[in-house]
Amino acid sequence: MTDIPAEIVETRNALAARLAAAGFTQVILYFSGCGDSGQLNDIGAYPSEIPLDPALYTDLASFGEDYLEATDVNWYDGDGGGASLTFDLANKTFSSDVYWNETVMNTGFAENDTLPIGDIDAVVKDSDAHALANTSVQP
């Protein structure tokens, strides 16, 4: 488990207090990315009838980026990944659900038994004779 720096915890708690004071019961930050970059995709705030102040939105986005960096989870590099960071204000909890994608390559059926393939020399001679018979000579 990663130790979260005290300033990140303090920011998280302060944001939770601001969100609860505004009347929200749940706020979810959604992140995704791939390659060498990632970004905040959306913030879901519930109940949805309460408008999310632009300054609070910006503070949540900054917190999300700082939190993900502090956890040292590589959720965007390579094949990419994503995260949801949830403030459950009704239950006074915070959780993170981070995933990453991996390319998995599987090979198909491969024969491991040694199988006889017959008289190779006869096949080669027959193939050579067939090739000579189909060759036309230009005058």
Report the count of strand segments.
4
Percent in helix: 25-40%
CATH fold descriptor of the domain at 6-100 = Murine Class I Major Histocompatibility Complex, H2-DB, Chain A, domain 1
CATH class of the domain at 6-100: Alpha Beta
Question: How many individual helices?
Answer: 3
pLDDT under 50 segments (min length 5)? Answer: none
β content, as a range?
25-35%
Biggest sheet strand line-up = 2-1-3-4
Kindly name the structural category.
Answer: alpha+beta
How would a crystallographer describe the biggest sheet?
Answer: 4 strands, antiparallel
Describe the structure.
The chain has a 4-stranded antiparallel sheet with strand order 2-1-3-4, with helices on one face. It starts with 5 loop residues before the first helix and ends in a 6-residue tail after the last helix. The chain has a domain at 6-100: Murine Class I Major Histocompatibility Complex, H2-DB, Chain A, domain 1 (2-Layer Sandwich), CATH 3.30.500. The protein is 35% helix and 28% strand. The longest helix has 18 residues, at 54-71. It has 3 helices and 4 strands, in the order αββαββα. This is DUF6878 domain-containing protein.
